[in-house]
């Protein structure tokens, strides 16, 4: 409301001065004392009006009008107050009184028209504006309100006439031309709309906005041939217009000129003035529409141009990274993402993408370094703690892993699936830290959410077997993991080791033999097989398996001692 009162106040100050010097000849009939009294009430009313105490302002303006019946401005002020109080009918009565006293004040007529507009009496509002503009000097500015009313009423011819009159007074403007063109389109007068577009192009040559709009107008109305001629002329007039070249590229592609279309598109991308967001949007559309071969042939060159033209744009490198990622080129994708981070570290998805790639490549030192940097920028993002925790867990930094994973879990409480992932990793981390109670609690929480989480079933059962605790539970979980993935040699080894811990040696030997027969096994499989054979009394066979284990891992604890002494050490 304050912004409305300031111009009103300026207006009223000028009218207050007018009142003080006499509004018309009738004001001379009021004696000086009465006039001073009227002025006093008016001035006091203005104070309360500014303070938005409209009830008091209204009383004082009324007293001013009663003191001086010829005080038109007091009635004008009362009309303003009533309008602000929502009583348009009473406001209209007061402004009519003001006009009857002083019919030559344009502000009075303008308020009357506004009140008619408030009451949806648009014809009467238009009549007031028309009469005022035709009979009073300095009222040309109200042509804009008149045009708006005609436009709202869909009286298009009258609106056009009003805009023509505005142009006569103020000259050509983008707003007038655009409004006129819109009206012609509403009237289905396409020829006039096109002609208006040409006028806009000629009048405002510093922008290609109207050139682009003109071509789109022709295309949207099925005038492809005309659009083809027009766009070539416009490109000569606006050679730096990337948007026109984008439209040209699309037109050429639809007509089958793929090579020309690609060249036009590349010309658009080479334009440094073209908004990079538009270029990125084009590449994003390519990612969803094109095959992998087409992406490589058509999109990659554009991505390269993008980073050449915008060498310090993080967005350019980020979209290039996305494109290489879609093509499966992890190395180039990672390099592009890292380049993006050099220029802007505020894009969370870029951090996550590059961290994921480093995790996949087992670059844990890099994951630790980069995730620490990311946490300085995003200290409240659970996924960054996930990467940091995963890397610390892999590096056997168990205390650091526990801290990161607990932080990530807390920040991800709304995502139950992600919380379960954190719990599964916390089970491993707490076990490594020797806090078995918290480890079991974390594993149980993960399995409560997903009872078929095979990795948790395997790890939980294996650690219980190593501790020789809850072996029945460990066996059930290990069997469930194997049932879920029967050819997983890691799961088979865990199941065999749980059976071994339960002294079910024959069953354990069958399971570990299946794992070894599947191939792709590690030293621990052969060592466990040897331990099982030893318990079955097959000492020499056990030693042979331990030797195979030593070949794969010479540094395995106790392996040399087992072989040398032909004895099982645990």
Automatic annotation (TrEMBL):
Protein name: Tetratricopeptide repeat protein
Entry keyword set: Repeat, Signal, TPR repeat
Residue ranges of TPR repeats: 38-71, 72-105, 314-347, 420-453, 523-556
Domain Ancillary SecYEG translocon subunit/Cell division coordinator CpoB TPR: 221-360
Signal peptide coordinates: 1-22
Alphabetical list of InterPro entries matching this protein: O-mannosyl-transferase_TMTC (IPR052346), SecYEG/CpoB_TPR (IPR018704), TPR-like_helical_dom_sf (IPR011990), TPR_rpt (IPR019734)
Natural source organism: Fulvivirga sedimenti
């Amino acid at each position: 409301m304050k912004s409305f009162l300031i111009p009103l106040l300026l207006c009223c100050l000028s009218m207050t001065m007018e009142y003080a010097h006499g509004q018309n000849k009738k004001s001379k009939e009021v004696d000086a004392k009465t006039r001073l009294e009227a002025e006093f009430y008016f001035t006091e009313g203005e104070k309360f009006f500014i303070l938005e105490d409209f009830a008091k302002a209204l009383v004082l303006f009324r007293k001013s009008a009663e003191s001086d019946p010829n005080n038109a401005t007091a009635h004008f002020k009362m009309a303003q107050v009533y309008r602000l109080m929502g009583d348009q009918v009473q406001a209209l009565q007061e402004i009519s009184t003001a006009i009857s006293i002083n019919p030559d004040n344009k502000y009075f007529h303008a308020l009357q028209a506004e009140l008619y507009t408030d009451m949806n009496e648009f014809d009467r509002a238009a009549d007031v504006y028309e009469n005022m503009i035709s009979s009073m000097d300095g009222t040309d500015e109200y042509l804009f309100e008149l045009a708006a009313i005609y436009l709202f009423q869909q009286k298009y011819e009258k609106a056009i006439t009003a805009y023509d009159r505005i142009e006569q007074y103020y000259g050509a403007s983008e707003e007038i031309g655009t409004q006129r063109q819109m009206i012609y389109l509403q009237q289905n007068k396409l020829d006039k709309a096109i002609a208006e577009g040409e006028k806009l192009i000629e009048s405002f040559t510093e922008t290609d906005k109207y050139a682009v709009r003109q071509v789109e107008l022709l295309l949207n109305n099925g005038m492809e041939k005309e659009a083809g001629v027009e766009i070539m002329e416009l490109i000569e007039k606006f050679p730096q217009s990337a948007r026109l070249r984008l439209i040209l590229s699309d037109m050429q592609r639809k007509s089958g000129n793929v090579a020309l279309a690609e060249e036009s598109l590349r010309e658009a991308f080479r334009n440094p003035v073209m908004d990079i967001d538009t270029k990125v949007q084009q590449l994003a559309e390519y990612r969803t529409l094109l095959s992998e071969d087409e992406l490589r042939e058509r999109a990659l060159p554009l991505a390269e141009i993008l980073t050449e033209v915008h060498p310090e744009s993080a967005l350019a490198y980020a979209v290039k990274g996305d494109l290489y990622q879609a093509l499966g080129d992890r190395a180039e994708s990672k390099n592009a993402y890292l380049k993006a981070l050099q220029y802007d570290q505020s894009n969370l998805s870029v951090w996550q993408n590059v961290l994921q790639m480093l995790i996949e490549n087992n670059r844990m030192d890099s994951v630790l370094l980069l995730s620490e940097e990311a946490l300085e920028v995003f200290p409240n993002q659970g996924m960054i703690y996930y990467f940091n925790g995963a890397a610390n867990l892999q590096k056997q930094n168990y205390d650091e892993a526990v801290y990161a994973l607990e932080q990530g879990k807390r920040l991800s409480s709304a995502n139950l699936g992600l919380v379960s992932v954190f719990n599964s990793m916390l089970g491993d981390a707490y076990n490594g830290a020797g806090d078995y109670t918290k480890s079991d609690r974390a594993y149980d929480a993960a399995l409560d959410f997903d009872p078929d989480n095979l990795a948790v079933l395997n790890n939980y059962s294996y650690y219980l077997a190593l501790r020789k605790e809850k072996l029945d539970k460990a066996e059930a979980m290990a069997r469930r993991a194997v049932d879920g993935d029967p050819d997983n040699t890691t799961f088979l080894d865990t199941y065999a080791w749980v059976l071994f811990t339960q002294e079910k040696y024959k069953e354990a030997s069958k399971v570990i033999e299946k794992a070894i027969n599947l191939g792709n096994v590690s030293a621990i499989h052969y060592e466990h097989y040897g331990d099982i054979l030893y318990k079955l009394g097959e000492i020499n066979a056990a030693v042979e398996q331990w030797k195979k284990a030593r070949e794969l891992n010479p540094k395995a604890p106790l392996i040399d001692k087992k072989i040398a002494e032909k004895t099982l050490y645990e």
